[in-house]
Amino acid sequence: MITRSPILTRGTQGDQRLCDLLMHSFDSLLAMVRHVPERRRLEPSLRQMRLFLLLAEELHFGRAARRAFLAQPTLSQQIRALEERLGVDLVQRSSRQIDLTEAGRALVPEARRLVAAMADLQAVANVHARRLHGCLRVGAIGGEAFMPYVIDILAELSARHPGIDVEIRSVNLVEQVYALPRGEIDAAFLRPPLPAGFRGLHLSSERRIACLPAEDPLVNRAPLTLADLSDHLVVDVPIPELRAWWDFWTVNPRPDGSPVRYGPVAGDMDALLSAVARGQAIAFLPAEAREDYSRRGVAYVDVIDLPLSTAALAWLPDTDNPLLTALLHAARSVLQRKTYGLDRSDVDGEAAAVTARVGVPALPGRGQVAGAVGNPGRFGGDPDRRRARDDAQGQAAADRAARPAP
Fold first, then answer.
1. Could you tell me which CATH class the domain 208-302 is placed in?
2. Is CATH 3.40.190.10 correct for 134-203+310-349+369-402?
3. pLDDT digits over 142-190, tens only?
4. Omega before 383 within 30 of 0, i.e. cis
5. What pTM did the predictor assign?
6. CA gyration radius, the chain
7. How do 234-236 and 262-265 pair as beta strands?
C-alpha cells in the first residue's frame, strides 16, 4: 500500500507550506495511478523521479545517462522500476527514438514540483543544521549591560543566531579579574585598562567624572580640577591585582607627581557609593554613572583634566568557542555602522590634551583592540611597548577570533 513518507508529516509550523506542497505533489502522483492493483503500488524514490525528468528533457537514454553519470543500462533499469512502482508506462520505446506516453507527459509537471519541493525542504534543513545553539555567558561590570552598544551588539547576535541564548552576569570590581580565566563567563563588557592576557574590542569613549558626597562644598564649584581634589581620600580596591587598574582610574600619581591618598576599601559599586555618601572618600567613574548610579547622598561633578574612559568587549585569546566568535563578529558588524560615545575628533582632541597633562596614552579608535593601559602588574605594562605590541599582534588576534564561522 502506498503511504506518505514520514518526512511529509513532520516539521515546524514555519515549514508547513513546504510540507503541504510536498503532500499535494505526492497525492497528485497517486491520483494518476489509483487504478493499479494494491500489490504493485510501491512508492517511487526521489532519485527515480530525477532520472525520469532528465529523460523527459533529453528523450534519449544515452544523453540522459551521461548527464546523470550513469551507464545507459542502469538508467533504463531505474525507469523500468519507476514504471512498475507507478503502474503506468511513462516512455514509448522504439529502436530509433523514445517519447513520453500520455501518462508520462502528465507526470512531468508533478514530478518537477515534487523534486523542487524536496530541494527546498533540504535547504531549510541545512539552514537549521548550520545555526549555532547554546548558552553564551557574558559578564558586565557596573551598568554596562544597559549601555547602547551592549544592547545593539546582543540584538545583532540574536538576529544572526536565534539559537544562542545570552546569559548576562554582573561582575564586580574583583570578579572582573577572575571570571574569565576561571571559565565562569565567555566574554565581558568591561572598562579598560584590561587585565594582562585579555583581548579587547574598543566600543566607546566618554568623559570621566568625580563622585563626591552631596554635602561637599566643592559640588557647587564645578567644574573642578584634579588639584581641587588633592586633599580628598579616594575609595580603594581590595586586591593587589586591581592596583594598576585603579591607579589608572584614580590618576595615581596626579599630574604634579603627588600620590593619591586612599581610604576605605570597596569591592563593588554599592560599597563604593556608600562610602562616598557617608563622606568617607570620593571616587572617579565614567560619565554614564550620572544615569546608572543616581543615589541619595552622592553628587557627580565634572573634572576638566580627568582622562577619558573607554569601554571594551573582553575575551581570552585562543578560545575555541563558536558562540564567542559569533559575538565578536556581531560586535564588529555593529561598530562598522554606528559610533558610540564621543566623536573621534573629540576623542583625539581630548586625548592629546590629557596625554600632555597626565601622561595617559591616546585612546584606541572605534573597533580597535583595547589593550591594557597603566602601570606594570597584572593590569598591563609599559604603555608605549604595549601599544606597539597591540599594533603588531593584537588586531590580528582579534580579527582571527572575530572571523565568522564557515
1. alpha beta
2. yes
3. 999 999 999 999 999 999 999 999 999 999 999 999 999 999 999 999 9
4. no
5. 0.61
6. 34
7. parallel
